Amino acid sequence: MVMKNNQGDAELDRILSETEILPSSGFTASVMDAVQREAKAPPAIPFPWHWALPGMIAGGVMLAVVLIVTIVQLTHGAPATSLPPVWGTALRSIGETAVRLGGPWVALALLVSFASVKFAALFVPRRA
User: Fold this and answer.
1) Is 79 helix (H, G, I), strand (E, B) or coil?
2) What pLDDT, on the 0 to 100 scale, is given for residue 71?
């Protein structure tokens, strides 16, 4: 618990009221120079959404197709022709290595990071 020191407060008030606080000699000029530089700067280059959007849409469609095919395969059982045994062994090895190296935790961390950034973006006003 911090106790107020009335004598210290009175002394501080006296010191602050005696002297006029002024900025240093070059402060105002440096601030105005910075403001003018900022005003003269060219606008930021906008992100080329018209070029990136088709790739993002294609990636989303492919991800949806892979998810749908995976769900269908899991619910209806394995197909009549399964993967070659070498592929199964390789995929099993990759999966075990990913789990051993913390793959699920990395995926969870990425998901939580993405969700927190999106949540924080809700509170930021959009520019016109």
Assistant:
1) coil
2) 85
Look at the chain and count its residues: 128
The whole-angstrom separation of Cα 17 and Cα 13 is 6
Specify the 3-state DSSP secondary structure of 84. Answer: coil
Of 89, 73, 72, nearest to 81 by C-alpha is: 73
Amino acid at position 107, single letter: A
* Token reading at 84: 């070659």
Which is it for the CA torsion 60, 73, 93, 110, positive or negative? positive
pTM: 0.34
Question: 41: which DSSP letter?
Answer: S
Q: Cβ distance 112 to 118 under 8 Å?
A: no
The end-to-end CA distance of the chain, in Å, is 48
CA–CA distance, 100 with 102 (Å, rounded to integer)? 6
